[in-house]
Amino acid sequence: MRERPEAPSIRFTRRELLRQGGIAALALGGLPALLEACSSSSSPTPAGGSSGSSAADISGTTLDFYSWQGYDIPVKPIKEWLKSNDVTIKPSYINTHDDITAKFTTGGGRGNYNLSTYEAGWGPLYIQLGIPSVLDVSKVPNFQKAYEVFKTGTAGKWFNVNGNQYAFPFTWGVQGINYQSDAIDAPTSYRDLLGPSFKNKFGITDDPVATTVIGAYTLGIYRADSLYTPDQLSQIMSFWTQMKGNARLIVPSYGNMADLLASGEIVAGTPGWAAVNSFAADKGDNAVKHTVPKEGAATFCDAYMIPADAPNPDTAYAFINEAFTPQAQAAEAAYLVQACVVPDALTLMDPATKALYPYDQIEQLLTTTAPLEAIPAQVPSGYANYQDWVKGWEGVKAS
Amino acid sequence: MLRLTSPALLVLGLALLIPILLLLVQSFVVSLGYGQLQYSFTLSNYAEALKDPVNRSIAIRTFSIAAVTASACIILGYPASFFITFRLRRAKNLALFLVVVSLFTSYLVRLYAWYTVLGRDGLINTALKTLHLIDRPISFLLFSKWAVLIAFVNVFLPFTILILASSMQSIPADLLENSRDLGASAVQSFTKVVLPLTTPGLVAAFAYTFVLTSGDYTTPALLGGKQSTTLASIVRDQFVTFGNQPGGAALSFLMVLVFAAVYVAVSQTRRYKGV
What we know:
CATH architecture of the largest domain in chain A: 3-Layer(aba) Sandwich
CATH superfamily of the largest domain in chain A: Periplasmic binding protein-like II
CATH topology of the domain at 64-172 and 201-250 in chain B: MetI-like fold
Strand content of chain A: 5-15%
Distance between the termini of chain A: 27 Å
Low-confidence stretches of chain A: 4-45, 49-54
Shape of chain A: globular
Radius of gyration of chain A: 21 Å
Strand content of chain B: under 5%
Oligomer: heterodimer
Helix content of chain A: 25-40%
Radius of gyration of chain B: 23 Å
Number of helices of chain A: 14
Structural class of chain B: mainly alpha
């Protein structure tokens, strides 16, 4: 997921006694592994822990998790796994991907979390900043069940860099337009929203990355490497300024978009996200849908990473491995309204969830139709970088 | 006395002054991006913050809405405080308690509550439709600068009333009686006694509301519609999105300078000795 600014939310489910037990167990039995984990931050060796995900004693440990709400996947298979392994998950949720860079570079996150995520395009920046540890693929045997495109294909290259596996991609999706199907037909183009029938009736999500990508698609200048000249970026932002002129509001978060669609304040919102359908359904509105216009859509692929200096990598490895079981993947796809990465999960999905994404064309989709985009953290001279994107978006909002 | 106050001074020093001083130092160092700093002196963070046209237009928007909010709170809060302080006798404490009670509700809940008042199917549109005054819901009520202003006043008016009421309660009752005994009219008593003696409270209430409104980005984000960006969100972008603490710190201290200038300006009203 690119940007998903939700209201800050932190759930504390710490079972301190169990945690202390876990620390004691680690101190007695896992100290060498812990030391190995700590050392992994400075050298490209796999994050520590006992060898083999099933061999490690993770009973009574805590999984300190820092990522999007929902990526702790509170679905039945995972809940049962947590309970049977006596693992407590302690999630803290982010509002944007920037929260991860801020937390692990300056915000005191390093050494305090054993599980986080990164989206494909953010990977190079995270790796450059030393945020993820190098992972031991042998500890996540279920990852071998994933589509090849996520392991060695065009999607996999974002997570396996120079032979080092930094993260395990577990979900993906697209961001087009959410709309209220009771009120309007599905928009077929982003430019539809510029028409008089949408005047003051749609919202634009405050998401500088997805807006830039969608703007590039709409203007026919999309590049998967995200290398846009300042002039091209200016064209993209001019497009959004025009869109803003016809919009009703800048929507601060995708959760807020669900509220606005469900309450009838807007009939459409872009950049959208299929999970907004789910959020709106939770509020009793089953008519909110997501569509991919003809120009294309921003594509994302999120992956679990174990941050450098993670205090308890064994639990993280075991959790990740469980997240790749077909049962967890199927439940997660339904819960997040996102695509799964394990083909065996398809037979366990309900037809509606399965029909949301073109699994039979997954290779083509992620390679040519809607490839994953880079975040331009560092760009050659003459191109706009990520800061330019954000500044451009701020300019749109200020206009 | 020093023994009694030293714990408070210690807490203030540790929890307030030290972080601010660190931030001030940081505003003069070089950012290499994403939290990386180079400790060499530079004024470029301030220069870049000042020359950015987006910052300037957002600053004008932010401080304008803050000034209007603070003024509206004073205009509404002063008579309310006067009434509570000088007209209510037994009910004075109850009235002040009710003002405080209004602060018990979560800030976010109060903001979302405006959706149910100003929204397409909100109270106002429903009432207007029921009265056959409109055919279609009015959409400009919500997601506008007016919605932001209304919400800001709703949030900060109780603070203004409490500050002003506190200021008025310090005026001895016999002072007003004496002025009337010496032949002053009710208006003269107000302009020559009450108003001059409450100028410190007015200054404090205005400055307090102005500062808090300027630093708020939740209300404009939720209710501001297309004009939802404020300086606080730009500062947030500097710290979180760019990992540029020096840039964010410089922008923050420029805001502090504006606050100080506004405080000095409104403090001139303390010279007011009555008309």
